[in-house]
Request: fold
Amino acid sequence: MAPEHSGALPRVVITGIGPVTPIGTGVAAFGASLREGRSGVAPIRSFDASDLKVRIAAEVSDFAPERYMSAKAAKRMARFSQFAVAASHLALADAGLDRAGLDPDRVGVVVNTGGGGVNTILEEQELAARRGVGRASALFVPTMAPNMAACQVSIELGLRGPVIASVAACASSVTAFIDGAHLIQRGEAELVLAGGAEASISPLGVSALANMHALSRRNDEPARASRPFDKDRDGFVIGEGAAVCVLETLAAARARDARIYAEVLGGGRCADAYHISAPDPEGEGAARAMARALQAAQRPPTAVDYVCAHGTGTVLNDAAETNAIKQVFGEHAYRLAVSSPKSLTGHLMGAAGAVSVTATALALERQFLPPTINLDTPDPDCDLDYVACRSREAAVRVAFANGFGFGGQNAVVALARVDG
Amino acid sequence: MSSASDQLIAIVAEQLRLPAERITLESSLIDDLGADSLDVVDLSIAIEEEFSSDEHPIEITEEIAAEMRTVEDILTYLEDQGVV
Reply:
């Protein structure tokens, strides 16, 4: 049995998973793609990208909001909020929970984002240029505001506990799990829907990220473009989607005989205080966040079997993150496994951490390591075991999910397998 | 029903995401069709866009919108403006 936290804080576990991602919606589809190493990257379909430097993305092209909400509710939501609502319904159902069986006042929501409704802002600005700002939609503000994914989850599902929506760029939704666990441990909520949502693929966004040299330009080979830790990586692939998980106490989960994917042991957060977009080249901040996560988890470095890396596929991130893992784990860095689901899903930015947590929870429950696809040519600066190309069976007891954001925000959450 | 009322009902249906069959001229926007104040603003904008022309612009002010309780009220306003 796992040791109890000091101070007898309640242990928090993940009992439901709701992925809405470019490689599948729902646990079955997402889990299968993760195991089989299926890429979700394709030529951009949501707009004409033919004039852009980057013409590929990982879109959720089969998303049908009306399956999860009324047409009227969908009209009042930006796409990132629609993703969040869908993911929340999926997570609750996966947990075997019915809204009718919950005490709504004791259920909290922590759904974070990177760009929020930035696409709504761009679309409304275009409309305003055509028909004048006097005809601004009355729905504009409550649609684009970044807290709306979390609030729409609350409204649509009738959840009335604390609702938190914070932003930390690409670390946003790792942060959601740390805050979500805290809400439960401090008694502010009995159950929390935690995750992230992102839908900010637009001509302006893609073009701006391309001009930062953040994006892969492998336009002719979309499925091979996202190649974290590979020597020939040339940037990340922008993605969209959401993932939400159900958090509750271990005691509550056991009392209702729920399937338990993983325990949230604790998290580590810190900042680089270095640059608006580049990570500290040595991965110093990333290392400190991982060290803090170990401390919070009260585990020695050798206990960690798997690191679900931030692993974006940018030249800088992957080398810095590799270096950070070596700083924290020493020789053990060469024994643990590291992989990046972004090789499959693209980079969901504000939702990326939640996808990583979801993938890690599945790895712990199903005892396998998700692959880093497209890792064809090893990079001397990235010399760990990245589960190249194919997933594999493995004993996974304790795992990290990493998220590092533009601006230097770092967040790491430690998860563990829970034995029956 | 006139084509103007069909056109209007189609706009109301689109704005409120309702099937057109559910909407009649007698329908109250708020009580029958579930609109709130935000919907009424966006509906007014959509109607201005649809029925305005360079020669004959219409503007549904907040005061006018406040008086529009049913679909028929809107139609009457458009008729009074001479745009349908």
